[in-house]
Amino acid sequence: MTPLEALVHDSLLDWIDTEGRPLGESASPLWDGEGERACPFAGSRRGRPMNTAALAQVLAHREQALAALRAASGPTAGDAWLATCALRWAPLFGPRPVPATDAATFKTVLGITRPLTSWLLLSPGSAGEPLHTLVPPGTVVDRLEHEGWLHGSRQVCAAPPERIVEAWEALVVPDIPEIDTTGALVASGLWAVLGQTRSLLRQGVLHEVPGWSPVASPQPGWPAVTHLLAARGPGSLVREVPRFEPRWARHVWVDVPPALDALVTACEQSRTLSDLDGAWAAFVHALPAAWTAT
Amino acid sequence: MDWTRRQFGLWAGAALLAADAWAAEPVQQAVIPDPKATPDPKATAEPEAEPLVLDGVWASATDTEVTWTLRARHGEREGVSLRWLVAAVRVVDGTTSTGVMAWSGDNHPWSRRLLAPDMVDVPPRRLVAIGELHAMVPAPLRTATARLHAEIQVWRGEDSRMFPLPPMPVLNPDRMG
Question: Helices A77-89 and A100-122 sit at what angle, rounded to 10 degrees?
Answer without folding.
Answer: 140
